[in-house]
């Protein structure tokens, strides 16, 4: 493939600022040749306020047919549906279900120059990936449970053999192929559940154990989600890949992000068999939007994940090479501590950070 079509959905709040930063770094990393063709499409809370439609059919069609989707952020406080849920989330949640993006990959990595709130933790101490099941579990109940306004609400938690099997396989495959390693150098997948209390999680654990037998080279272990939050604070260096149900993945990935500098440092990739959707894990931060001070690293790193995913799928070295060079540029910018936004202890704005990242990019390897 010569050219890849990327659907960019800037969204609300700081979304447009951070997606612009990522598009700039990606374009720069791929050099002058137009390898990526970006086109912008509307979705989100602001659009909903204006038009009554948070996720237009044309935006969905563009996302479905694109080679990959890059999102800024969405949502504005108070812009809600009659049942009280947020309209700005329709895009992200709608894409997940319509495109069956079942694997939500959330790397938690402490970069140099970024201070962890965990005492004594340094680069290399925190480097694991949360694989969040993204198609079923508690989130799949959205809008379909029992709802009697002001009186009763019920959201059933459903997990299926098919859904559990594919996410657990994904996690074991990732453990085999990903870079980085826990402190002891062992590849492992941790099953994070609440199998001692709820049947759906007991099924998750049962199927995890079955699948794990097919990966004797990877250590399999278990943690109850409440204990997991404690381990991720006390002993983060133990972890490699963690696989978990949708809602638990949502919660522990924010906890993980906090240990490596906050939501601004946390990228996210949502993958199906045919589509890939990339964004930072953070929200639209309307309190700081338009000020030019948003942290662009999460979205830039999500952009690098996008290149890596596309590069592997299409066997395209140009993309894989660009992904590596973006990660190195991020590494250098952070290590030198001269390109830090307010949330990670600096004073620099998004545009200046983006400029430094572009300047840090090593020249592309000559095409193989
Ligand atoms: C996330 C976010 C989303 C979620 C929202 C925006 C729907 O918090 O990606 O973690 O709850 O899954
Ligand atoms: Mn979340």
Give structural notes.
This protein has 2 domains: 1-101 and 268-368, Isopropylmalate Dehydrogenase (3-Layer(aba) Sandwich); 116-260, Isopropylmalate Dehydrogenase (3-Layer(aba) Sandwich). It has 11 helices and 12 strands. The chain has helices spanning 15-29, 45-51, 57-65, 90-98, 161-177, 199-212, 225-234, 246-259, 297-314, 317-335, 350-360, and strands at residues 4-11, 36-40, 68-73, 103-109, 127-133, 146-148, 152-154, 188-193, 219-224, 241-244, 267-271, 276-280. The protein is globular, with a radius of gyration of 20 Å. The protein binds 3-isopropylmalic acid (IPM) and manganese (II) ion. 3-isopropylmalic acid is lined by residues 89, 92-93, 250, 281. 3-isopropylmalic acid (IPM) is lined by residues 89, 92-93, 250, 281.
Quickly list its features.
two-stranded antiparallel sheet; globular; 2 domains; 11 helices; 368 residues; binds 3-isopropylmalic acid; ten-stranded mixed β-sheet; binds manganese (II) ion
Summarize this entry quickly.
The protein has 11 helices and 12 strands.
């Amino acid at each position: 493939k010569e050219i890849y079509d990327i659907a960019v959905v800037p969204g609300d709040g700081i979304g447009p600022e951070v997606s612009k930063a990522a598009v700039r770094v990606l374009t720069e990393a791929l050099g002058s040749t137009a390898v990526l063709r970006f086109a912008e499409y509307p979705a989100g809370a602001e659009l909903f306020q204006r038009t009554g439609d948070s996720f237009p059919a044309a935006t969905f069609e563009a996302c479905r047919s694109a080679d990959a989707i890059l999102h800024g952020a969405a949502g504005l406080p108070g812009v809600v549906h009659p049942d009280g849920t947020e309209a700005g989330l329709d895009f992200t949640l709608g894409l997940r279900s319509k495109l069956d993006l079942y694997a939500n990959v959330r790397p938690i990595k402490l970069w140099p120059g970024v201070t962890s709130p965990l005492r004594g933790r340094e680069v290399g101490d925190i480097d694991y990936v949360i694989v969040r099941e993204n198609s079923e579990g508690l989130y799949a109940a959205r809008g379909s449970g029992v709802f009697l306004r002001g009186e009763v609400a019920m959201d059933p938690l459903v997990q299926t053999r098919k859904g559990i099997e594919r996410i657990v396989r994904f996690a074991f495959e990732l453990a085999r192929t990903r870079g980085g390693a826990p402190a002891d150098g062992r590849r492992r997948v941790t099953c994070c559940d609440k199998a001692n209390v709820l049947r759906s999680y007991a099924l998750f654990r049962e199927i995890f154990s079955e699948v794990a037998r097919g990966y004797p080279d990877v250590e399999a272990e278990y943690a109850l989600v409440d204990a997991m939050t404690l381990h991720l604070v006390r002993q983060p260096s133990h972890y490699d890949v963690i696989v978990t149900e949708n809602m638990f993945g949502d919660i522990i990935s924010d906890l993980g992000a906090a240990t490596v500098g906050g939501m601004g440092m946390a990228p996210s990739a949502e993958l199906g068999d045919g589509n890939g959707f990339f964004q930072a894990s953070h929200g639209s931060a309307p309190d700081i939007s338009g000020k030019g001070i948003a942290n662009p690293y999460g979205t830039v790193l999500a952009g690098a994940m996008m290149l890596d995913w596309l590069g592997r799928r299409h066997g395209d070295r140009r993309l894989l090479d660009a992904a590596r060079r973006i990660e190195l540029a991020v590494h250098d910018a952070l290590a030198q501590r001269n390109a830090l936004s307010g949330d990670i202890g600096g004073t620099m704005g998004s545009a200046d950070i983006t400029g430094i990242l572009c300047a840090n990019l090593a020249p592309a390897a000559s095409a193989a």
